[in-house]
Amino acid sequence: MKYNEISHFSHPQHKLKFEYTETPFKCDGCKEVGIGSRYKCATCDFDLHMHCAIPTPSIFHPFYTKCSFQFLSRAPGDSPRYCNACEKDITGFVYHCRSCGFDLHPCCAKLPMVLDDGEVKLYLYRKVSSSCHKCGRKGRSWSYRSKCKKYNLHVACVKEMLVETWHEFLRTHGKSSSGSRKLEMTRIPSLRNMLQSHHHKSRGKAKKCCEMAGLAVQFVISAVLGDPTTLIAGVIGSLMSRG
Questions:
Q1: Which residues pair with 114 in a beta bridge?
Q2: Where are the beta strands (DSSP E) in the chain?
Q3: Residue 126's closest CA among 90, 178, 86, 181?
Q4: This prediction's pTM
Q5: Rounded to an integer, what distance in angstroms lies between the CA atom of residue 108 and that of residue 95?
Q6: Could you tell me the sign of the dihedral formed by the alpha carbons of 19, 24, 26, 31, in that order?
Q7: Are 79 and 60 in contact (CB under 8 A)?
Q8: Contact predicate 75/44, CB 8 Å
Q9: Radius of gyration of the chain from Cα atoms?
Q10: What tens digit of pLDDT does each residue of 77-120 get?
Protein backbone atom coordinates (compact mmCIF):
# COMPACT_ATOMS: atom_id res chain seq x y z
CA MET A 1 0.00 0.00 0.00
CA LYS A 2 1.30 3.45 -0.87
CA TYR A 3 0.65 6.62 1.13
CA ASN A 4 1.51 10.15 0.02
CA GLU A 5 2.86 11.04 3.47
CA ILE A 6 3.89 8.94 6.48
CA SER A 7 5.49 9.20 9.91
CA HIS A 8 8.37 6.80 10.51
CA PHE A 9 10.05 5.67 13.74
CA SER A 10 13.53 6.10 12.19
CA HIS A 11 12.92 9.80 11.48
CA PRO A 12 10.36 11.05 14.02
CA GLN A 13 11.17 14.76 13.67
CA HIS A 14 9.61 15.14 10.21
CA LYS A 15 7.03 13.57 7.92
CA LEU A 16 8.24 11.59 4.92
CA LYS A 17 6.64 12.19 1.54
CA PHE A 18 6.35 9.73 -1.30
CA GLU A 19 8.15 10.62 -4.51
CA TYR A 20 9.57 9.04 -7.62
CA THR A 21 13.16 9.73 -8.63
CA GLU A 22 15.44 8.75 -11.49
CA THR A 23 18.46 9.75 -9.38
CA PRO A 24 20.08 7.03 -7.24
CA PHE A 25 19.85 7.36 -3.47
CA LYS A 26 21.14 5.54 -0.43
CA CYS A 27 18.35 4.23 1.78
CA ASP A 28 18.83 5.44 5.35
CA GLY A 29 17.00 2.37 6.62
CA CYS A 30 18.78 -0.64 5.12
CA LYS A 31 21.79 1.42 3.86
CA GLU A 32 21.45 -0.09 0.37
CA VAL A 33 21.26 1.79 -2.93
CA GLY A 34 17.87 2.56 -4.48
CA ILE A 35 16.16 4.31 -7.36
CA GLY A 36 12.55 5.00 -8.30
CA SER A 37 9.89 5.04 -5.57
CA ARG A 38 10.95 6.28 -2.14
CA TYR A 39 9.84 8.19 0.94
CA LYS A 40 11.86 11.35 1.49
CA CYS A 41 12.15 14.04 4.12
CA ALA A 42 11.87 17.42 2.38
CA THR A 43 13.85 19.07 5.19
CA CYS A 44 16.63 16.56 5.75
CA ASP A 45 18.69 14.40 3.44
CA PHE A 46 16.79 11.27 4.48
CA ASP A 47 15.40 8.57 2.17
CA LEU A 48 13.74 5.19 2.57
CA HIS A 49 12.93 2.44 0.10
CA MET A 50 9.25 1.63 -0.10
CA HIS A 51 9.99 -1.74 1.55
CA CYS A 52 11.81 -0.01 4.41
CA ALA A 53 9.29 2.79 4.86
CA ILE A 54 6.24 0.51 5.02
CA PRO A 55 7.60 -2.91 6.03
CA THR A 56 5.61 -6.04 6.63
CA PRO A 57 6.17 -6.90 10.34
CA SER A 58 6.56 -10.62 9.67
CA ILE A 59 7.10 -12.52 6.42
CA PHE A 60 7.62 -16.05 5.13
CA HIS A 61 9.82 -16.86 2.16
CA PRO A 62 9.43 -19.87 -0.18
CA PHE A 63 13.20 -20.51 -0.05
CA TYR A 64 13.05 -20.96 3.73
CA THR A 65 9.85 -22.85 4.46
CA LYS A 66 10.61 -23.38 8.15
CA CYS A 67 11.50 -19.75 8.85
CA SER A 68 9.51 -16.77 10.04
CA PHE A 69 11.32 -13.49 9.34
CA GLN A 70 10.70 -10.52 11.61
CA PHE A 71 11.40 -6.95 10.55
CA LEU A 72 14.05 -5.34 12.79
CA SER A 73 15.65 -1.89 12.75
CA ARG A 74 19.03 -3.56 13.25
CA ALA A 75 20.39 -7.09 13.26
CA PRO A 76 20.58 -8.76 16.70
CA GLY A 77 23.91 -9.14 18.47
CA ASP A 78 27.23 -7.44 17.88
CA SER A 79 28.78 -9.87 15.39
CA PRO A 80 28.87 -8.92 11.67
CA ARG A 81 25.96 -10.40 9.73
CA TYR A 82 25.30 -10.84 6.02
CA CYS A 83 22.24 -11.19 3.82
CA ASN A 84 21.54 -14.78 2.83
CA ALA A 85 20.23 -13.62 -0.55
CA CYS A 86 23.03 -11.38 -1.82
CA GLU A 87 25.79 -12.18 0.72
CA LYS A 88 26.33 -8.47 1.37
CA ASP A 89 26.74 -7.06 4.90
CA ILE A 90 23.70 -6.20 6.98
CA THR A 91 24.17 -2.62 8.21
CA GLY A 92 20.62 -1.43 8.82
CA PHE A 93 17.01 -2.63 8.58
CA VAL A 94 16.74 -6.40 8.21
CA TYR A 95 14.35 -9.33 8.13
CA HIS A 96 15.68 -11.84 10.68
CA CYS A 97 14.66 -15.40 11.54
CA ARG A 98 15.26 -15.93 15.24
CA SER A 99 15.10 -19.72 15.07
CA CYS A 100 17.48 -20.23 12.13
CA GLY A 101 19.55 -17.05 12.29
CA PHE A 102 19.01 -16.19 8.63
CA ASP A 103 18.97 -12.54 7.53
CA LEU A 104 17.58 -10.77 4.47
CA HIS A 105 17.82 -7.17 3.32
CA PRO A 106 14.25 -5.81 2.98
CA CYS A 107 14.60 -5.41 -0.80
CA CYS A 108 16.10 -8.91 -1.12
CA ALA A 109 13.29 -10.37 0.96
CA LYS A 110 10.75 -8.81 -1.40
CA LEU A 111 12.43 -9.79 -4.68
CA PRO A 112 9.76 -11.14 -7.08
CA MET A 113 9.98 -14.88 -7.72
CA VAL A 114 9.23 -14.19 -11.38
CA LEU A 115 10.08 -11.06 -13.38
CA ASP A 116 7.67 -10.84 -16.30
CA ASP A 117 7.31 -7.95 -18.75
CA GLY A 118 4.69 -9.80 -20.81
CA GLU A 119 7.27 -11.29 -23.16
CA VAL A 120 10.29 -12.26 -21.09
CA LYS A 121 10.30 -14.25 -17.85
CA LEU A 122 13.21 -14.56 -15.42
CA TYR A 123 12.90 -16.90 -12.43
CA LEU A 124 14.49 -16.44 -9.01
CA TYR A 125 16.50 -19.41 -7.72
CA ARG A 126 18.19 -19.92 -4.36
CA LYS A 127 21.07 -21.71 -6.04
CA VAL A 128 21.89 -22.64 -9.64
CA SER A 129 24.52 -25.01 -11.01
CA SER A 130 25.44 -22.81 -13.98
CA SER A 131 27.87 -19.91 -13.79
CA CYS A 132 26.83 -16.27 -13.57
CA HIS A 133 27.23 -14.20 -16.74
CA LYS A 134 28.75 -11.34 -14.76
CA CYS A 135 31.32 -13.00 -12.47
CA GLY A 136 31.65 -16.43 -14.10
CA ARG A 137 31.28 -18.20 -10.76
CA LYS A 138 28.66 -20.65 -9.48
CA GLY A 139 26.53 -20.87 -6.40
CA ARG A 140 27.46 -17.55 -4.82
CA SER A 141 23.98 -16.13 -4.08
CA TRP A 142 20.40 -16.10 -5.28
CA SER A 143 20.16 -15.81 -9.05
CA TYR A 144 17.69 -14.86 -11.74
CA ARG A 145 17.62 -17.43 -14.52
CA SER A 146 16.00 -17.43 -17.96
CA LYS A 147 13.39 -20.03 -18.90
CA CYS A 148 15.90 -21.83 -21.14
CA LYS A 149 18.28 -22.01 -18.14
CA LYS A 150 21.17 -20.70 -20.23
CA TYR A 151 21.28 -17.23 -18.66
CA ASN A 152 22.02 -16.55 -14.98
CA LEU A 153 22.73 -13.40 -13.04
CA HIS A 154 23.59 -13.36 -9.33
CA VAL A 155 21.66 -10.93 -7.17
CA ALA A 156 25.02 -10.19 -5.52
CA CYS A 157 26.60 -9.25 -8.84
CA VAL A 158 23.79 -6.84 -9.65
CA LYS A 159 24.35 -5.17 -6.28
CA GLU A 160 28.08 -4.90 -6.92
CA MET A 161 27.44 -3.17 -10.24
CA LEU A 162 25.06 -0.77 -8.54
CA VAL A 163 27.43 0.05 -5.68
CA GLU A 164 30.30 0.69 -8.09
CA THR A 165 28.09 2.90 -10.22
CA TRP A 166 26.72 4.66 -7.14
CA HIS A 167 30.23 5.63 -5.99
CA GLU A 168 31.10 6.80 -9.49
CA PHE A 169 27.92 8.90 -9.56
CA LEU A 170 28.82 10.56 -6.26
CA ARG A 171 32.35 11.31 -7.46
CA THR A 172 31.02 12.84 -10.67
CA HIS A 173 27.93 14.72 -9.49
CA GLY A 174 28.11 14.94 -5.71
CA LYS A 175 25.44 13.92 -3.20
CA SER A 176 23.22 16.93 -3.82
CA SER A 177 22.81 16.42 -7.58
CA SER A 178 19.48 17.53 -9.01
CA GLY A 179 16.80 15.00 -9.91
CA SER A 180 17.27 15.74 -13.60
CA ARG A 181 20.62 13.94 -13.61
CA LYS A 182 20.25 10.31 -14.51
CA LEU A 183 22.42 7.42 -13.38
CA GLU A 184 25.12 6.51 -15.87
CA MET A 185 25.09 2.72 -15.67
CA THR A 186 28.67 2.27 -16.91
CA ARG A 187 28.82 -1.35 -15.82
CA ILE A 188 25.68 -2.43 -17.64
CA PRO A 189 26.97 -2.14 -21.25
CA SER A 190 29.95 -4.35 -20.34
CA LEU A 191 27.51 -6.98 -19.07
CA ARG A 192 25.56 -6.68 -22.31
CA ASN A 193 28.78 -7.28 -24.29
CA MET A 194 29.39 -10.46 -22.32
CA LEU A 195 25.88 -11.62 -23.17
CA GLN A 196 26.43 -10.89 -26.86
CA SER A 197 29.58 -13.01 -26.76
CA HIS A 198 27.60 -15.81 -25.16
CA HIS A 199 24.89 -15.51 -27.84
CA HIS A 200 27.38 -16.40 -30.57
CA LYS A 201 27.85 -19.80 -28.92
CA SER A 202 24.11 -20.49 -28.71
CA ARG A 203 21.71 -21.60 -31.40
CA GLY A 204 18.01 -21.76 -32.06
CA LYS A 205 15.61 -21.37 -29.16
CA ALA A 206 18.40 -21.11 -26.57
CA LYS A 207 19.97 -18.20 -28.46
CA LYS A 208 16.63 -16.40 -28.73
CA CYS A 209 15.91 -16.99 -25.05
CA CYS A 210 19.28 -15.58 -23.98
CA GLU A 211 18.91 -12.57 -26.23
CA MET A 212 15.53 -11.80 -24.69
CA ALA A 213 16.90 -12.38 -21.19
CA GLY A 214 19.75 -10.01 -21.93
CA LEU A 215 17.25 -7.33 -22.86
CA ALA A 216 15.45 -8.00 -19.56
CA VAL A 217 18.50 -7.37 -17.38
CA GLN A 218 17.01 -3.98 -16.48
CA PHE A 219 14.12 -5.77 -14.75
CA VAL A 220 16.57 -7.63 -12.50
CA ILE A 221 18.33 -4.35 -11.71
CA SER A 222 15.13 -2.49 -10.90
CA ALA A 223 13.93 -5.36 -8.68
CA VAL A 224 17.17 -5.34 -6.67
CA LEU A 225 16.89 -1.56 -6.36
CA GLY A 226 13.56 -2.06 -4.63
CA ASP A 227 11.26 -0.87 -7.42
CA PRO A 228 10.45 -3.69 -9.88
CA THR A 229 8.18 -1.64 -12.11
CA THR A 230 8.00 -1.30 -15.86
CA LEU A 231 8.50 2.45 -15.56
CA ILE A 232 11.86 2.33 -13.80
CA ALA A 233 12.93 -0.63 -15.91
CA GLY A 234 12.33 1.52 -18.96
CA VAL A 235 14.51 4.28 -17.52
CA ILE A 236 17.36 1.88 -16.83
CA GLY A 237 16.81 0.21 -20.19
CA SER A 238 17.32 3.53 -21.96
CA LEU A 239 20.58 3.99 -20.07
CA MET A 240 21.69 0.51 -21.13
CA SER A 241 21.07 1.35 -24.79
CA ARG A 242 23.67 4.13 -24.64
CA GLY A 243 26.45 1.54 -24.47
A1: 123
A2: 5-6, 16-26, 33-41, 46-49, 58-61, 64-72, 94-97, 103-104, 114-116, 121-125, 143-146, 152-154
A3: 86
A4: 0.75
A5: 9
A6: positive
A7: no
A8: no
A9: 18
A10: 889 999 999 989 999 999 999 999 999 999 999 888 887 766 66
